[in-house]
User: Which sequence fits this backbone?
């Protein structure tokens, strides 16, 4: 599959939102129910929130684009002052999963910040596909969990950049 990973543009935020809504329903309807997923995506992936994400400092907001211009995946990560890169979002369109896009997007986020030393993310405990995906790519699940109104998330992290070689 041929694709280009690049920064997201303002004129494609509606398409990114559509990709997020499609992927969230595919991933989370069985966990939360379609009605709740719609409510979550309406809040978390509202266009005004996506607009704000474009302009944030020390933030990567990336898309994978097919040669025909179709958006296939999106990812979002932020660098903290301590070298911690927080992966906030990585979603691949359901029909495109299993073809290397997720791995490529993850690598792009890891390398976007050369000064990054550690990458951390949260995964819904019941999202077995995501847990397996990140484990296969070197992320370790931490003993701490976060709580939200919906669920309990698992924190995962791994060394990135030059920190990978200093263990």
Assistant:
């Amino acid at each position: 599959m041929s694709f280009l990973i690049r920064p997201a543009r303002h004129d494609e935020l509606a398409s990114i939102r559509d990709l997020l809504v499609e992927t969230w329903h595919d991933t989370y309807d069985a966990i939360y129910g379609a009605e709740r997923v719609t409510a979550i995506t309406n809040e978390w992936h509202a266009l005004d929130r996506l607009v704000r994400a474009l302009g944030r400092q020390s933030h990567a907001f990336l898309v994978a684009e097919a040669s025909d211009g179709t958006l296939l995946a999106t990812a979002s990560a932020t660098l903290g002052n301590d070298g911690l890169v927080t992966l906030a979002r990585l979603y691949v369109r359901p029909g495109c999963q299993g073809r290397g896009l997720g791995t490529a997007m993850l690598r792009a986020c890891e390398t976007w910040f050369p000064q990054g030393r550690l990458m951390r993310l949260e995964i819904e405990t019941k999202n077995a596909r995501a847990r397996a995906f990140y484990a296969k790519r070197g992320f370790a699940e931490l003993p701490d969990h976060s709580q939200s109104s919906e669920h309990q998330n698992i924190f995962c992290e791994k060394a990135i950049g030059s920190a990978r070689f200093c263990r």
The mean pLDDT is 92. Residues 3-165 form a domain with the Aminopeptidase fold (CATH 3.40.630.30). The beta strands are 3-7, 59-66, 71-79, 84-92, 118-124, 140-147, 152-159.
